[in-house]
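Run log, item B.
One chain of 178 residues. Sequence copied directly from the ordering sheet:
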Amino acid sequence: MRRHPLLATLGVLGVMVVVVFGGYVVAGALSQPAGPPVTVAGVVRVSPLSGWEVAERSAEPPSVRLTRGSGNLDVMVFPFSGTPEELAGDYVEQVLRPQADRLEVSQRVQVVKVGDRSGVRVAYIGVFRGVQFQIEGEVTAVVSSPGEGVIFDGWAPAGLLQFAMGDLDAMIDTARIR
């Protein structure tokens, strides 16, 4: 029986290429907007990526929760006039902290672009009432026209947020704010 070392080498090389680069092709395909955009209060429009779906809506405050697996994105609109830093601080103190038994918020504030607007992003981790595990998240705050603030709260069980961050960042960064 004759062996063809070149053929075997090419076969192994082909498998390696598929394994190494195939993930990028699949990730790219799954990170495309799928379905119609979701609008909150006529102020912000988010395009859910493949696999993300509306889990719930609320009228007070106007909000929507998108979810996929353990990842979640809450998008909310509040009456607000001030800076994005003040909006993020108010959200942490008035919404997150009252619901938390324990909450740690990063002192590092990251400046981000959301569509054509500037905003800020802060990270948090905490134990929230009625939840059996720690929650890890990032709050992105953007102030739109005078009198409106938009909050994006991307969160997941602690340790799992990193697996949703690519999708969360893509949906937030491409959101359209009036």
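Observations after the first pass:
- The two ends are 72 Å apart (CA to CA).
- Residues 1-30 form one domain.
Flagged for discussion on Thursday.
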